Structure formats: structure tokens, C-alpha cells
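Reopening this one. Same input as before:
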Amino acid sequence: MSSNSIRILAGNSHPALARLIAKRLGTDLANVTVAKYSNQETAVTIGESVRDEDVFIIQSGCGEINDHLMELLIMINACKTASARRITAVLPCFPYARQDKKDKSRAPISAKLVANMLSVAGADHVITMDLHASQIQGFFDCPVDNLYGEPSVLRYIRENVPDWKKAIIVSPDAGGAKRATSIADHLDLDFALIHKERKKANEVSRMVLVGDVTDKIAILVDDMADTCGTLGLAAKTLMDNGASAVYAIVIHGVLSGKALEVINNSVLTRVVVTNTIPHAEKKKVCPKLDTIDVSAVLAEAIRRTHNGESVSYLFGHAAI
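Same output, byte for byte:
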């Protein structure tokens, strides 16, 4: 057992999740003030000693993403200069994760830039969840724990989807096939795939279903839902092909732009997202939204990291 104690710091991106994590660890959030000067500079004041402590800074990549990233970098640096023993950046949703490769001429690899900035700021360790591409772990020279929402998703399906044994798991694109087949194998269910053709980013032109969904509950599984155009079209494609109902389960519910309008007007029965990104206000507008709480997974990862225990248990088991 480490002699130093856990200090949980939270930025402004998702204070509710930080409070849930701190509560599960039986501790309070450290006294930190994150404010802005009138010229929009970010000012961070850490109101208690972190000298020789094990510091975990919780900041998700959402909302005003650039401001929140800058907050995180300044908080990491403030803890480093205050002689913290170890600084772990806990990023439930990794910012710029979709910009992970050079997919066209002169395109930046912004996820690598974020990794470099975190390292230079002074992060010794990174904990995140369901990276858009797991190779992003290789952008860092420090240890990265990429936790999975899959065990929590499996538990949700078993407990909340009626007649789930007659369901079929569907990937809305070829990139998510591995994730969907893994869930289908664990639940001993069939698997289907939707092939989508894009004309430009965030706009899907045509969808083709591969697999039989007739008279089955279709469960769409993806890592991220942004404008929800893909989910809305995929749900319509599935219903047109004879599905009895369509659920969508997504790890990171960005839900930007007209996403809530799309969900409300779609044939989706329910859209389930984890709380890696705050959406309490959006649930008031969209009754189809439901939440999987992942604070237990993140809290257990923090506890195991602090105590020097293996985190790999969490890759296959849902924390309670």
C-alpha cells in the first residue's frame, strides 16, 4: 500500500463525474479554482498541498474542448511545479481522438499533438476510455490505460433490453465490426453490419445492410455518436429490413448539432450513452436518452493504479 494519498482534482468539463468518482473512492475533491481572466486566459489555483501526493486530474474532452484541454494542461503543470509525486490525467473521453491519422494531404495528426502536450505539461500516466483508435496509446511515451466500456454495455443489455436473447448486434460501419462482434460473442448473439458510403465528413449518403434482422431487436453498437446522422439512418435501414425494434448503445455521446432532434424524430427505441460526457440537460429534451454510469470503472482504475495493482481485470469485468 502506498504511503502517499490520492488527490482527485477536477476541471470544469465534467464536475458531476468527478464527484461520483471521488465518492466511490471515499474521498473529497481537492480544492481547485479554475477561472478565466477578462482576456479569456485560464487561471488555475490549487488550494491545498499536493507535495508528494498521487494526483489524478479528471477532465473529459467535451463541451468547450479547447478551453478544457488548456485547463487540464495548466493543472498538470501546476501540480508538477508543486512537487506532486505522480500526476495521472484521467480523460474519460480523449480529445481530438478522431484526428488520429493522416487521411488526406496536409491533414494534421492532432491526437499525437495532444499526447505531446500532455507529456510536456508533466503527465506521468494517462487513464482514458474507449479510444477511437487504440493505437493512440502509442503516441505516448508514458503508460496509458485504455479502459473499455464493453463490460458495462453487456450488463446494461442483460438487465435493460427486454427479450435480449432474441436480439442481434449491429455495427453501423465496418470500423466498429470488431467491437460489435466481441459483444455478440459474449452474449452468444448473431451479428450484422451496415456499410455506409460518405460523400463528405458527417454526411452519410447510402447504407447497405449485411445480415438478417427480420423480427429481431437490433442493438446498434458504436464508440461515439456526434450528430447522430449515422444512427438515425442506420435505425431506419434496420426497420426497413424487418427489425422489430432498434436500440443504440454508444460509449461517448457527444450529441452535437441537431443530434437530439434526429434522435427524437428517428425510429430508435432508446439511445444509451455512458456518462464520459455530461448529458443531464440533454436528457430533459430527449426522453429516449438513457445512461450507463462508468464512474465505478474509472474509480476502480484509479484505486488499482494508486495501490500498484493490475488494471487488466477491468478489461473484462464491470466494476460494481
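So the earlier flakiness isn't reproducible anymore. For the record, The radius of gyration is 20 Å.
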